[in-house]
Amino acid sequence: MTYATVNPATGETVQEFPTATDAEVRDVVERSHRAFGSWRATPVPERAARMRTLAGLYRERKHELAALLTEEMGKPARQAVGEVLLVAGIYDFYAENAERFMAGEKLEPSTGGDAEVVLEPTGSILGIMPWNYPYYQVARLAAPNLMLGNTVVLKHAPSVPQAALIQEQLFREAGFPEDVYRNVFATNEQIAEIVIPARTVQGVSLTGSERAGSAVAELAGRHLKKVVLELGGSDPFIVLDAENLENTVKHAVLGRLGNTGQACTAAKRFIVVDEAYDRFVDAFAQAMDAVQPGDPTDRKTLLGPLSSVAARDGVAAQLQDAVEKGATVRAGGTPVDRPGAWMEATVLTDVTPQMRAYEEEIFGPVAVVHRVRDADEAVELANSSPFGLGGSVFAADVDAAREVASRIESGMVFVNEVTGTAPDLPFGGIKRSGVGRELGRFGIEEFANKKLIHAPRREEKLPLQDEEAVSP
């Protein structure tokens, strides 16, 4: 494993970084555990003050931070700035709300007495993060857990080492103690053999592929560690009518091409009822053809390079498989002949279950459009996927769209908008898209000890437990 910045727009290797030794990895794990004792004792308002400072640093340095994303993984400049500002919002959100989320919940026990459930930190949490949103994915883990009082050890994707290092630097500049948040350039083997088995590591959060999620979940389970997994997605984009077609197509293009199509929650399967299908496909293909790959440093660019040549070749192989088996290319589909990891915006129709593109997640700017009879068949096709992360439903009749949304098997569904994210909205999926939730109130509960405290009221004496009472 090599930690290196390779500019996907040019193929140039910019900078390489050495991986950590086994001794260095063990030292990071131990330091994170030692820092937990003092960090959990730090008053919440003090944690919040540092978190607000951190948010301010992201805003002040947004262009510098965004430029790193463009260089390391090809994110178009305007989208890169948007990611930085979203991250600042997440840090501010938890600074403002964590104390309220952590407040005890009073219960009314049937046995009498007073009962309260309080959230407490559990220890050091390992984060394993991907390259497609190098700051945002980290913030979803770090913000709630640091405010709760946990500490974080972060293994980032090998292709975004500079983004990994600058985040650790920003935590230090914001006043967080050195070992409360630690980056480590570890190998997969070191994570599996040293970090996850460590008794001091209390949980693992991974955003990545199904294969990585399965491997981490199996290993964490063996060591009785809790996991939060945000994995792949093949989100449906359901079109129930041809009303407001121009608006629907604009959302379809943005939903498919945001981050060059390299988002778990990108719209990937466009499921269109028969009466709207022909008009939608014609307009969508025309709109996708109009979006040409461009310089990711230009703020006007929507479609940049993919993250790597290997990633581009993987998507091209899925596309070729579909075409060879009879799929129709309605837009794009031809190689971009220049150095780097470029691909055209592409629209496929007539995709059948025999093709890889029918069920596999396509992590790039390729849209698959399906024709269905009606809303019921749209729901059936949407739910046939092994994934269940997000989804969108578009219709002039909002009540009809909401009814369809209620039947979609996924963690998130958006009506008349593409799947999105915000600091206060829970994020996560079901089925092979993962387990657990991040962001909002739910994000701070995943790696918390929900401790019950029960005591008699001052004016009452609890009786001795009956001999026949069941004891655990």
Question: What's the layout of helices and strands?
Answer:
Layout: E1 3-6, E2 13-17, H1 22-40, H2 44-60, H3 62-73, H4 77-101, E3 105-107, E4 114-121, E5 124-128, H5 136-148, E6 151-155, H6 161-173, E7 181-183, H7 188-195, E8 201-207, H8 210-222, E9 226-230, E10 235-239, H9 245-257, E11 267-273, H10 274-289, H11 309-324, E12 328-331, E13 346-349, H12 356-359, E14 366-372, H13 375-383, E15 387-388, E16 392-394, H14 398-405, E17 414-415, E18 430-431, E19 434-435, H15 440-443, E20 448-455
Parallel strand pairs: 5-6, 5-8, 6-7, 8-9, 10-11, 10-16, 11-14, 13-14, 16-17
Antiparallel strand pairs: 1-2, 3-4, 4-20, 9-19, 12-13, 15-18
Structure description:
The protein has 472 residues and is an alpha/beta fold. The chain contains 15 helices and 20 strands. A 7-stranded mixed sheet has the order 12-13-14-11-10-16-17, with helices on both faces.
Strand arrangement, major sheet: 12-13-14-11-10-16-17
Helicity level: 40-55%
**Strand elements, count:** 20
Rg calc: 24 Å
Low-confidence stretches: none
Largest sheet: 7 strands, mixed
What is the general shape?
globular
Strand content bin: 15-25%
- Total of DSSP H or I helical runs spanning 4+ residues: 15
Class inferred from helices and paired strands: alpha/beta
First-residue to last-residue Cα separation: 48 Å
The averaged pLDDT comes out at 95
List keywords for this structure.
alpha/beta, 472 residues, 6-stranded mixed sheet, 15 helices, single chain
